[in-house]
Structures are given as structure tokens and as C-alpha cells.
Amino acid sequence: MEERELNQILAGKQRRRHELARLPIEKKLLAVVRLQELAAPILRQRGKPVRCWSAGLFPTCLAD
Hints:
The protein is mainly α. It has a domain at 25-64. The chain has helices spanning 3-21, 25-45. The longest helix has 21 residues, at 25-45.
């Protein structure tokens, strides 16, 4: 991988982190719930107990 390509990738990652940092807390919480839902089947398959938060706990106006 060339240095130019690597710099583009790293700049893109930094832009994405800044975008996520600017999100309101409600959107960040919904993202956490979604990640929990995605990871749950894998963890259950490994025999780990899983308890995901519910997006229903948040006001409906937040789930755009």
C-alpha cells in the first residue's frame, strides 16, 4: 500500500470519527443498541449471556 493511499484512508477514518462525535447523544445511544443487536447472536453462539438495551426505551422522535 502506498503512503498516499494510507493517508487517504487515515483521513477518511478521522472524518468519520468527527462526524460521529458531532452526533447528539440520543443518536449515539441508538448506535450502541444497534451494535449490541448485531453482536448478540455471535455472543449467544459462544454461550455468553446477552442482554441488549432496547431502542424502545428512547423517545420515538429520536429513531429517525
